[in-house]
Structure formats: structure tokens, C-alpha cells
């Protein structure tokens, strides 16, 4: 196993206008109080963790009226200098798509537009030479074929079955080129069999860790940034030789998001992944 950290370039969006005003996943309760200032402080801490690890963090300006825009992972899929824009399932998030698209275009990425519902890196994760693509709740199965055409990586469809784990990045984390961690019960029987075949050494997370969004983690191949509450998963990862860094994103979790949701990986090209 390679335990070398790779320097990464991330896109993030400050949760200035964060709120839970609507419910589009089972985590969201618009009647429960949300502390936006605390959300901002927790997000700033996450950004600092990335900087301390030597990663570069770019920022897109938050827009009023788009409380979920903090979840930058849903803004696109960026691999080898190509950026695929997104198309949200829910109208409440629709206006985020052109804002992210404009950012990618200004940053010089080669742009592609989605033909189907596609919620970006929330559902589409590069794992070694495979693109794992979730479906069942958000990203349409039909989007997977377009991803394969655009990026030229074999796309592996992952069928999500538990509404609490509505995006692939809530049920599976890419740890490095060879390994992932996931919650088996979040996937259909066939998808579980595919995961066992592709990743025989994968870390199997417990429901308790998944329920605090422990799998919504960001790994650079050596350090894994994950929700502080996911203590069991952190111990499993340390046993495998990873260094774990717990962050508390309790406010953003009220919208169903964790560290990975707040973080979009910008991959310039093969050499500088
Ligand atoms: N409230 C947002 C939604 O339901 C949360 C998105 C979390 N993002 C993610 N990559 N899982 O769309």
C-alpha cells in the first residue's frame, strides 16, 4: 500500500448563507435550530486542517438564497483538467449549478454539460482507475454513460438503497488508489458483490460510524479528515496505517453534509492528481 500523501487542490464555499430551510434528505429538519455562525467556524477549521496538510483551498463566493451551496462536492466533477457541470434533482439547489459552472470556466477547465441529473462528486468518486458512480436517489443512472464518455475511465454503477445515505460520498470513502472504506448495507446486493471484487481489502464501516457521516471523509492517501464523532472508523483507519484528523461539522450535518460534501477535488491532470 502506498501511504504517500498527495498535495491536493480543493474548492470550498463558505457557509455564509447556510440554513436548513427545506428537506430534501432525511437529515434535514427545517424546524430544528441551526447556528450559522457556528457552521462558519466549523467550516473555517476544516479549511485550516487542509491548509496545515499542505493542500491548496480555492473558494467560490457563496450566494444568498442557496443554503446548500456550502456543499461544494455537488458543484461538479473535475478530473484531468475536465470539468463536468451538474444538474440537481431538486429545484431548491438548481441555481447552484450555473454558479459552479462559471467558476470552473473562469478557472480554465474544459467544460462539459450534464444531460441528466448529476450531483457531481457527491455521487461520482475516482478510485484508482475506476469512476464509482452512485445512483438510486440523486444522480441518474443515465448520467453514468456520459461520465464514461467524457472522462474515459470505466464507470462502475453503485446502487444506493438507504435514503440516509443518499449520495455515494455518504456511504463510501476513497482512501487511496487501492482502497476504499464503505458501509455495505448502504448498497444493493449486486453493488456489494462488485465492491468486494474490486476492493477485497476495503474497510467495512459500522452503521454507528456511518450514522454520524463518518464515511463523508477526505483522504490524501495518508491523512484522513473525517467527522470527529466517527471514533470507531478512525480507529479502524489508524490500524491500517492512516493518520486520522477528526473535525466537528455538527451544524452542517443538520443538512446531511460532512467534510467531503464541503470539499470538491480539482484534478488538473494525471501527473498532478
Ligand atoms: N442538503 C444537501 C442535499 O441534500 C446536502 C448535500 C451533501 N453533499 C454531499 N456531497 N453528500 O443535497
TrEMBL record:
PANTHER family: DIMETHYLARGININASE, DIMETHYLARGININE DIMETHYLAMINOHYDROLASE
Pfam families xrefs: DDAH_eukar (PF19420)
The species this protein was found in: Micromonospora qiuiae
Protein's recorded name: Amidinotransferase
Keyword terms of this UniProt record: Hydrolase
Listed InterPro entries: DDAH-like
Family: Belongs to the DDAH family.
